[in-house]
Amino acid sequence: MATLTLTVNGKPVSAQAEANTLLVEFLRETLGLTGTHVGCDTSQCGACVVHLDGLAVKSCTMLALQAEGTEVTTIEGLAPPGSLHPMQVAFHQNHGLQCGFCTPGMVMASVALVTDNPNPSEPEVRQGLAGNLCRCTGYQNIVKSVIAGARAMER
Amino acid sequence: MAVPGIGDAVSRTEDQRFLTGRGNYVDDITLEGQVYALVLRSPEAHARIVSIDVSEALALSGVLLIVTGEDWQREGFGHIPTKSAVRTNRDGSPIAEPPRHCLAMDRVRFVGEPVALVVAETAEVAASALALIEVDYESLPAVVDPVAALADGAPQLWDDIPNNLCADFELGDAAATDAAFAEADHVIAIDIANNRVTAVPIEPRGAIARYDADSDSFELYNATQNVHANRDTFAEQVLGIDKRKLRQIAPDVGGGFGVKNGVYPEPALILYAARQLRRPVKWINTRSESFLADTHGREQISKVELALRADGTFLALRTTTTGNIGAFCWTVGPFTPTGGSARTQGGPYAIGAMHYQAKAVFTNTQPLDPYRGAGRPEASFQIERVIELAARELGFDPVELRRKNLIPRAALPLRTPMGLEVDCGDFPQVFERTLAMSDRGGFAERVAASRARGRLRGFAIAPYLECTGGAPNEYAGITFTADGLIELAVGSQSTGMGHETSMPQILAARLGVPLEDIRYVQGDTDATPIGGGHGGSRNLEVGGNAVAQAADEVIDKGKAIAAHLFGTPLDRVSFEDGRFLVPQTNHVLTMPEVAVASLDPGRLPEDLQPGCLNTGSTFARSAIVVPNGCHAAEVEVDPQTGIIEIVGYWVVDDFGTIVNPLLCDGQVMGGIAQGIGQALLEHAVYDADSGQLLTATLLDYALPRAGDIPDMAIEYYEGAPTEKNPLGVKGAGEAGCCGAPPAVVNAVLDAIKESGVTNIDMPLKPEKVWRAIEDARRAG
């Protein structure tokens, strides 16, 4: 056990973590932030994507202790309580989600994608989301959502 | 707050919680004092269990309970029954239904079969304990291929089931079919394989069981598609408890596609463990475990024969197929390759005689159960592949050959030679609209442009005929609460399809109230007396009509209240646009006003009690409905690499009335993506010698990614709402899976037709396509 100190969704957090605890486990089990999901065990699905110092990371691919001193944003902290980030609004308006399980990771990956490339083309969105699996939507409305979300984020 | 109508593209209510991380999936639930269960699964495809030694594992600190097949047998628990609608062989004898226990008893028959359950204080301790259980297996020969399994001398899974034959099925008129073949000018035959795939909902299966000793009752939170039927089986057939003592709740479920519909052993095991330990027990599959623990789908090896007249008229169809069902019958496994594929044989074409023969066969593989479409995608693939070959071999234009043989509108209603009642539709119009969307006029130019870049371009069109299925009854309950809300509870349940929006949309449109006034309840055996779960594209058809029926009953009761309040005879009260009124008077009451009155004894007639507006209504399907439509795909193939790109995709669907086009598009898109996945990428592969699943992680099993699926242009034909149900809906969930595989595969074969290649089995991976072209080139 070691003490892990970091910022999660804008709030300072200090908690114990085992050396082998994954960041996703720390977020879900220690902090109770269950919006970040686990859909696989080979880092393929992307349901666990969070922002770490502004970059999209799969929180199943790093140990919690590696996040020492970082700023982590999860889906719960993407927008202030009671409001939605423009990307969340775009997913809603464009039916970019069905079962919702891949959605938190998909939205977090999309926000990072657009932060990096504010005006992505359709192929760039498809390429940029290659690390996020969705089994419900066929991706078409996700791509549409991301392009709409990018426009909204510009404004 | 606007009142939605049927046909409005209402965006979803449930999105709010899913988009903000407030969804509530099973793994998000933590119960006070919960402990963790893991399943020890067989590493052997076929073996005798000589002994199981759990002593070292039990001695590990934190281990609470280990259950083996011997323990299960000692408790006297029952096996999980099969509920296949096909129960007899062609000779009238019963199909073979070997017992499926929750844990292997003396023999394992597939890699992944549950052998023991371990429960520990933490998941880590449970995992360590799993590794300490010593099972002595005596390996037996295994067989994974269904055709090989039928042969004399093949390894036998069950001592009393010769040649591993579960079911020997036929449908149609063999004599009439033979006669038509004898008189035909042409007979075209094709051997095809429909690849084994698996559903891979992104949320793995999992459950939490809680036992309350004081009331001797259970609660089960389960990632299932079917709370009522599973509850009944766990309680009555397996554990031998009163089903009223078991409440099953499906919280948010992260995708299902059929694979969460069946009855699995793990929830029964943890119910038992929770009672033994008096503590809540949680079990969550890992993804890799899911490949070994979730049922698979498809896998048929078929010969399809089409008899034609010289002018291309279809005369008869004969399909002979072998379906792999894995090591057990599972929940309804034998039905898929038999009845499930039989009903829609021949698709939307006029074919005078048909005969369908199927053998469902046991092998040492993960059992197969319904996966989105469950037999109908296989049937669609069978007819479309043989038609494509017929066009090629006989020199017909594939589009013309199909157009010529479509059932004309005037011929409906009809009963197909497979016994399917096709009541309405306009197959030619749907076909022509799809063709028009795909810009055939510009095709030659696009082919030339592709060729200039070293690419081969191909096109295919694939009309399909589908039918709904699943439980025939569904319940909707409407309760008016004192806080002005209308609670709507339906026995079916969403695993992503959006019932929380579409079902209230039907009620809101019927009653003339805004969606915000409706609270939706689903996935809870305590909330509705019956429920049929989700399967067979049944929700809108059966559940949606239950809502409409219940709403109409509310309106009838509301009229009685309004008549009392107006002081007019009942027959003068009408209901229009959400208002009870007496025409040509100023008597008007809104639905919410009548709802408030219904809770006030002072405002009710003497024969009505407060709460009288509340209604529970069961809709019973009179006949399955027949969704249909047409897909078309244009592809580019790079002959140097075999890489395929789908450059155009068009579909026109006839689902009858469209309740919510936004959600309906989502169903079509998702179904097509799974169909494209099957056509180009996905394959659950077993090693023929060891019986090991070679594609047991997402590193090995190719799930489509965003770059693999094209944009699809989707339109609906709404000119033929069915009269089989009041809403006129036909079911939309599985159609995409039926049209996409033949459209894509035939388009690829069209692109490479100059090579002479006439068949490549799915999935059409680049290597396979490249090899087929190269082999054909070398063969000259």
Name its key features.
heterodimer; A: 155 residues; alpha+beta; Ubiquitin-like (UB roll); DNA polymerase, domain 1; 2 domains; five-stranded mixed β-sheet; 5 helices; 5 strands; globular; B: 780 residues; Aldehyde Oxidoreductase, domain 3; Aldehyde Oxidoreductase, domain 4; seven-stranded mixed β-sheet; 20 helices; 28 strands; 29% helix
Provide an overview of this structure.
The complex is a heterodimer of chains A (155) and B (780). In chain A, 34% of the residues lie in helices and 16% in strands. Chain A contains five helices and five strands, in the order ββαβββαααα. In chain A, helix 3 crosses helix 5. The radius of gyration of chain A is 15 Å and the shape is globular. Chain B has 780 residues and is of the alpha+beta class. In chain B, helix 10 crosses helix 11, helix 11 packs parallel to helix 19 and helix 18 crosses helix 19. At the A-B interface, helix 2, helix 3, helix 4 and helix 5 of A face helix 1 and helix 18 of B.
